[in-house]
Amino acid sequence: MDALTVSPGGVLEVRNVRKGRSLYTSRLVKGGEIIIDEAPLLLLVAPEMAQSTCIACLRAVRPKERIECSVCFQACFCSPSCQLVAQGTPWLHSVPLCSAYKQLAALGLSTDDQAQLRYLLHALALRHAGTPESERRFAALCSLVGEPTEAEHAVAGRLAPYLKAILAGLNAVESFSLSGEELAMLLRKEQLNSYGVLASQQQVAAAAALQIGISGVCGSGGGTTCGGGVSAGCSSNNGGAEMTPGEGEDGERRLRGSALYAQASLVNHECLPNVARFDFFDSSRSNSTHVTFRALHDLPPGTELAQSYVPLHWSLAERQAQCRDVYGFDCTCPRCQTESQWNDDEGEDDDESEWETDTSDEDLETDDAAVAAAGEAATEQSRDAGDPGPCGDQEVEMQDAQPIVRAPPGEEGPLEPTYLRLFLLKYMCAAPGCFGTAAPVKPGSTLLECNVCGRTRSEREFLRELERSQQQQLQLQLQLQQKKSTTRPRSVR
Ligand SMILES: [Zn+2]
Ligand SMILES: [Zn+2]
Ligand SMILES: [Zn+2]
Ligand SMILES: [Zn+2]
Question: Residue ranges under compositional bias (Acidic residues) (predicted)?
């Protein structure tokens, strides 16, 4: 097990484990503590959001401050300083990339193809910029997990002629060439490691007003859509609002772009995470492009960091399908084991809204002391705690039969069902339709903040909601009993 300290202060170390590289705590981490704070390797704007997303910092640009690229008309900047930075940085929007964008737009390709080609162009720009910084970034990009599959080879083969044509237009075919194998490798790295960044509400509204057919919808994997990703999951932290940021009227999550981070991509998946990812693209802070991860609860030394690549409210079948089909592994996490043991009337079904109202069944006790104790237990168990996930609603093929999930030898077994329910109630955002993950605002705080909508919830509010959900549950059970007794023939007894 080789350990490599990757964060200042020795908070984290990389270990090689059965499922690949993974990050572990090397000391006690307090709930609410920021354990990763990292600058991106690459930021990519979704082509359909190019007129409202700054190409340098991914900020949602207001019409008043918007500066359009007057050469390609395929990019915009949120400020003169971002314009200067973008035009002066080879992998942002320097002259060759600007010309490439212009040529790409003229090809009339689908937004998905454009997004993938833009990514490849940025990767090529990194590779050939020839500065120590670009070399560092390209090496980090290549060291991300992901070996190309047939699917990426096919995409690479299909996109290569377009790439060649664009590079020929720049007179750069010679110096910028990449083999099909390298293209497939780069596509796979992007697919497995990029984060989808949700559009702001204004962007969604503007897109709807323009009647743009947006294909940058979360969850479909690849390109600038979210759902690629060892570290995937989309996130946006735009502050509380009625509609979840990035969500269109149809309830689908819109993406403004995607981002690649080296260290964050080492955080593996579990369906009950212990860290939550926060981003700040629209904030006024100086490091607005940094991604941060906060611990949901205390993590003892030697704890593997875990985030959820899928929204926390997804059913077992949906999560299993997504992990297998998009990320290429079978999830055998403790939550999946627990839920696979449930039979249909015990709880889990394939209803997405399950965790909205059906937050508990047989297991929750009703007296306050038990609730408080259970809530405490949920915070203390140093296992999972939920991260970001909210990739939005997604069509996943349902399986008829409940999959049976067992732990591989030497790994953790199933969870207590009560713990699982309380965990989700506590760490999944209570705002309707949000399903973000909530983490303490700072170490020692009991105020939890959602990583998608930014809402906060105090311990008191949590306990109130817990009580309400139990009452709902009781009422449901009562109704069910009444229904049974009215339909049952009286002569039975
Ligand atoms: Zn900007
Ligand atoms: Zn341009
Ligand atoms: Zn799982
Ligand atoms: Zn939320």
Answer: 342-368
**Strand pairing of 194-198 and 234-235?**
parallel
Q: What type of residue sits at position 220?
A: S
The predicted-structure confidence for 387-396, as pLDDT tens digits, reads as follows 333 333 344 3
What three-state secondary structure class fits 417? helix
- Of the listed ranges 104-108, 110-114, 481-485, the least confidently predicted one is 481-485
ipTM exceeding cut-off 0.90 for this assembly: yes
Q: How far is the CA of 313 from the centre of ligand 4 (A)?
A: 12
Q: Ligand 2 centre and the CA of 372: distance in Å?
A: 57
Give dist(CA 230, CA 60) in Å, integer.
25
Ligand 1 centroid from CA 486, angstroms: 64
Least Cα distance to 385 among 408, 339, 351, 419 occurs for: 419
Are the beta carbons of 194 and 233 closer than 8 angstroms? no
Distance from CA of residue 380 to its chain's centroid?
25
Helix or strand run (H / E) with residue 409: none
Confidence label for 343 from pLDDT (cuts 50, 70 and 90):
low
Q: Strand locations in 356-482, DSSP E? A: 438-440, 448-450, 456-457
